[in-house]
Design brief:
This protein is mostly beta strands. Helices cover about 0% and strands about 50% of the residues. It is built from no helices and eleven strands. The strands form two sheets. Strands 2, 4, 5, 6, 9, 10 and 11 form a seven-stranded mixed β-sheet that branches. A four-stranded antiparallel β-sheet has the order 1-3-8-7, with no helix packed on it. The radius of gyration is 13 Å and the shape is globular.
C-alpha cells in the first residue's frame, strides 16, 4: 500500500533553515507529481511547492526565493529545503502525491523570533 512519511520538522529561529524529507513507498515514485503543502491553525491548507516527474518545480509566491523542492527518484524521496524562515512559515507541512491523491500525515515546523 502507498505510504508517505514526512520528517525534518523542528523548532527554529527566524532566519534559520530546515530540510524536510518525504519518503514514499508502495508507489511508482518516478512517474508521480509530488508536492508540499502547509496548514497553519485556523488557516486554509495551501500548496507550497510541487515538482513533476521531469524535475520541473512550481512555488507559491510566498516562498519563492526561499524554498527549493527536489526529488531523488532512486531513494523515492522528495525534499523541501527551507531557508530564511519566517514566523509566518509556521505550520504543519504535508507531502502529497498529486497524481494519485495520497497524503502523508505531516511534520510540524515552528519558527520563532
Amino acid at each position: 500500500q502507498v505510504q508517505l512519511v514526512e520528517s525534518g520538522g523542528a523548532l527554529v529561529q527566524a532566519g534559520g533553515s530546515l530540510r524536510l524529507s518525504c519518503a514514499v513507498s508502495g508507489s511508482t515514485f518516478n512517474v508521480n507529481v509530488m508536492g508540499w503543502y502547509r496548514q497553519a491553525p485556523g488557516k486554509q491548507r495551501e500548496k507550497v511547492a510541487s515538482i513533476n516527474s521531469g524535475g520541473s518545480p512550481w512555488y507559491a509566491d510566498s516562498v519563492k526565493g526561499r524554498f527549493a523542492i527536489s526529488r531523488d527518484n532512486a531513494k523515492n524521496t522528495v525534499y523541501l529545503q527551507m531557508n530564511s524562515l519566517k514566523p509566518e512559515d509556521t505550520a504543519v507541512y504535508y507531502c502529497r502525491i498529486l497524481t494519485l491523491n495520497y497524503w502523508g500525515l505531516g511534520t510540524q515546523v515552528t519558527v520563532s523570533s
